[in-house]
Amino acid sequence: MSPRTSHNYTFENFAVDVDQRVLLRADKPVPLTPKMFDTLLILVEKSGRIVEKDELMARLWPKTFVEEANLAFNIQQLRKALGDSARQPRFIETVARRGYRFIAAVEKVVNDDGQVHSQTTNQFETPGPPLGNGDGFASRSSSARYNTIREISGNHVTGEAAAAGPVTRPRSRVSKTMLLVAAVVVLLIVGGWLLWSRLSNRPQSSPAGRTIIAILPFENLTGDADQDYFSDGLTEEMIAQLGSFDPNQFGVIARTSVMHYKESQRPLDQIGRELGVEYVIEGSVRRDGDNVRITVQLIKVGDQTHVWARQYDDQMQDILALQQKICRDVADEIQLALGKPKPSQLVQKPRPTLQSYEAYDLWLKGQYFLNKRAVKDFERAVQYFQQATDKDPSYANAYVSLATCYALMGGYMMRPQTEFMPKARTAVERALELDERSAEAHTVLALILQNYDLNWEKAETEFRRAIELNPSYATAHHWYAEHLMWRGRFEEALRESNEARRLDPHSLIISADHGAIFYYARQYDRAIQQFLAVRELDPNFQRSGLINHAYEQKGLFAEALADILAHPPPAVPPSMYWSELTYAYGRSGQQAQAQRALGKLLELNRKQELGAEAIIWAYLGVGNNEQALAWLEKAYAQRSPAMTYLKVDPRYDPLRRDPRFQDLLQRAGLDQQ
């Protein structure tokens, strides 16, 4: 009979007993669910190496679909049990967009019939380019490598002393029967929750017979990084064109998600799995003076067959017509591959002029800055879009993008909507005069009707029209989901949000707003779980700051304050920072700190008029309902985004029985929604 071999792991003052499935801290058991223990064991076994998310999910939930948010929640709970932090990790480090790495030094102790052998198992991967954590990564990993306490059940084991005698296996002070009963109960609870989560939160699959395509970022072969705007813009424009072609047959992954793979070396089969697509389009672009060369290849993901490839050479001023031709050729080839050949139905547009090409080039530059979604970049984008409309007053896309900038700027800059929304309306109305079939234009118009006019019925009509024109337009589904959320139609909102996530699976804003639906539906635990999943990808993503709202509604004020204080300006606008601090301090009973933060906020408002919502939240936090109602009236006059929250935001609950609030709800058109 072969000797029985068992092994344990130690790190700092923790010990992992693999046989008994127990984690001990200083000889005392640490409560873990089975999934948390399995997660820890996988990470510890591969200490110092990146464990990809796909591998973790496959091992933790084999043959079962779960949301990535479940993994993030599992990691967050494990960190909490270890006393660890995502922002300053001692044990579990997040490697952005890839997975996790156990960074503490780990000692593996192998017990073979009483013979104990000790070896360090935390050899780190060969350093490569920084992954997600920048300059702090190397120093933190290096210091962790030598920070180990090799202690198991009171016995100290060192490399030299490992052979001196056996190490007593750690024993729990809780009986095995109690542990077994507790484990069964936890399994039933967690299993039931995961099943419910799977059924209610899984993104919907694409309609039967609809082919899903990803147009990967076109490679810039000019040798000039300043030309990235052109190759990126070409990618974006082809996504828009192909997405509007025969929407019952084709679905196209959105720009945000495909740009995630720019300059990526990931294999196509992995990209296909991550995006859930059947075909990918790869290409490159080279500009040389007035000439352009574009190469395109269509690849079937399943067997990585190159279905079709072609090279196009043309004059730069003919680039718009060339894009239409490429999209038509690709669509025809896919239909041929599917055995459904039929003529392409792309809308024929007039042959471009030199002025329209110059306007297009300016539009591409504006899109480059618009997609960054930062205040200073909005302003630069507006300049380019205005120049594009001056160059070619008939260029509809430039007016759509100009309207989008103005429609978003008030919220991002925390300034009154009256400053921007009239300009947005003028631009989008001109866009629709030029191209009534623009899904993007109808989507922006819907946003204006909703946020500024508070015309909910007409806004919904415009959202539905946009989706009818281009079912692959993720932003239309995303903003429509928000619209349904504001009206309290949460089940419908989740369906639309799931469709947006399917079309744009790597979009942080869509993922964060999925969490917002849970928050406004008062499902706070699910909201926190979703926001934590976003934080795993980008710890500083501004919209995920809604997590502190969920903490507050659960009475977790210490967690809320810690989160707010961890993201000071310029990570968030100063007005938002002081508003959130006032609310959290006030609700937690720390009135002196709340009044100090309120003073900072009001001082900012004296220097420059702020959007009313920031001051409303602050007064609600300190319990001054009269001032909150007064500022709500100002918000109504400003057409502030605060009006859209009236029906569903739990922060308004202290005001709901006041007749003045009910009157405001009626004027905002949300009393019967």
Structure report:
The protein is of the alpha+beta class and 673 residues long. The chain contains 26 helices and 17 strands. The strands form 4 sheets. A 6-stranded antiparallel β-sheet has the order 4-3-2-1-8-9, covered by helices on one side. It is globular.
In short:
The chain has 673 residues and is an alpha+beta fold. The chain has 26 helices and 17 strands. Helix 1 (34-45) crosses helix 3 (68-82), helix 6 (228-243) crosses helix 9 (319-337) and helix 20 runs antiparallel to helix 21.
User: Multimeric state of these chains?
Assistant: single chain
Q: What is the mean predicted local confidence, pLDDT? A: 80
> Uncertain runs with pLDDT below 50, 5 residues or more?
1-5, 123-208, 346-352
Q: Describe the largest sheet.
A: 6 strands, antiparallel
Structure summary, number of beta strands: 17
What is the strand and helix layout of this fold?
Blueprint: E1 5-11, E2 14-17, E3 22-25, E4 28-29, H1 34-45, E5 50-52, H2 53-60, H3 68-82, E6 92-95, E7 99-102, E8 107-112, E9 115-120, H4 136-145, E10 151-152, E11 155-156, H5 176-201, E12 211-215, E13 219-220, H6 228-243, E14 250-252, H7 255-258, H8 268-275, E15 279-288, E16 291-300, E17 305-315, H9 319-337, H10 354-370, H11 375-391, H12 396-413, H13 421-434, H14 439-451, H15 456-469, H16 474-486, H17 490-503, H18 508-520, H19 524-537, H20 547-553, H21 557-565, H22 574-587, H23 591-607, H24 612-621, H25 625-638, H26 659-667
Helix pairs in contact: 1-3, 3-19, 6-9, 6-10, 10-11, 10-12, 11-12, 12-13, 12-14, 13-14, 14-15, 14-16, 15-16, 16-17, 16-18, 17-18, 18-19, 19-20, 20-21, 21-22, 22-23, 22-24, 23-24, 24-25
